[in-house]
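Students often ask what a holo structure prediction actually looks like on paper. The answer is less mysterious than it sounds. You provide the chain, you provide the ligand, and the output is a string of discrete structure tokens encoding the 3D arrangement of the protein together with dihydroflavine-adenine dinucleotide.
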Amino acid sequence: MEALTRNFFLFLSKSRFLNSMAQKRGSRLVTGKIIAGTDFQSSIPIIKQLNWNGLATTVDHLGEFVHSAKIASERTEEAIRTLNIIGKENLDSHLSVKLTSLGLDIDDDLVIENMTRILDTAEQQGIMVTIDMEDEPRCEKTLEIFKLFKQNYSCVSTVLQAYLYRSEQDLQELRPYQPFLRLVKGAYKEPPNVAYPNKKDVDDNYKKMIEQSLKEGLYIAVASHDDRMIEYTKELTKKLQIPKDQFEFQMLYGMRNKTQLQLVEQGYKVRVYVPYGRDWYGYFMRRLAERPANIAFAFKGILRD
Ligand code: FDA
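The corresponding structure tokens follow.
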């Protein structure tokens, strides 16, 4: 039943019709709940409030799978503007980007050109840019582009997904680059020839990747709302005597708010992933696929911990 619900929401996440309806009519429902605002300027008060509460952020302009060079260029301009505002307003924030929004599906030269402009600004402002990981067919290219940039820029990081069989090997291959890595379980619908179909295997691989990265001295973000993964990380880091400045926890804006603050009180670094923009529909559907209870706060306006 759980798998059916997950597949249903992931199927709906691809609907262009529902996406355009959501953009026209639904933004009010989700603003201040799972997205910070429909543009960056209106999101700043929420980011400042999170920073004030001791939570760092990483901001994401929603929108992916872009098929026009013009839109990819607009997304690039938006990322550059955002980096400059983060710098000017002195926000404690990173930026997250999706390569498909910068032209990954259009042309390699285009995505590299756009990413170069973003990283040049990020370097000037001293802000980390994380390349989110999208679906499996784009994983290889995303990692190639990450490695290319990591040779010249220190301000770029990326994500590995524990549900993919390949991620353990990718972790080994990334080691020489000493990356800042965000580790996640994985949010897309993937077939069993590329991803573990059973949740238990995903969880086991997630733990294994946390342990391997920490033992190899990498700085990692454990990006999960799962108490079992959070406790595992706390116990493991105590056992291995890993200092609290070698890792951080990351959670999505609007999820587990109390837990985020409790971790800060316990002296852990916590970063909140703050999405903004009108194109929130695909992001929201993936959150419903992960946990249908998330629907409660969309319709009742109630945030449960
Ligand atoms: P999971 O869905 O496995 O749930 C396990 C348990 O955790 C649940 O049974 C419940 O007890 C608890 N739980 C989960 N969500 C909860 C909630 N909202 N409230 C209360 N309890 C909850 N994916 C990707 O493919 N590419 C990416 O780049 C990213 N980036 C990213 C950044 C950040 C900061 C986060 C937190 C996540 C991502 N993800 C992602 C998404 C990720 O891959 C994954 O789909 C979700 O985090 C869901 O997995 P969890 O480990 O959080 O819990």
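The two ends are 24 Å apart (CA to CA).
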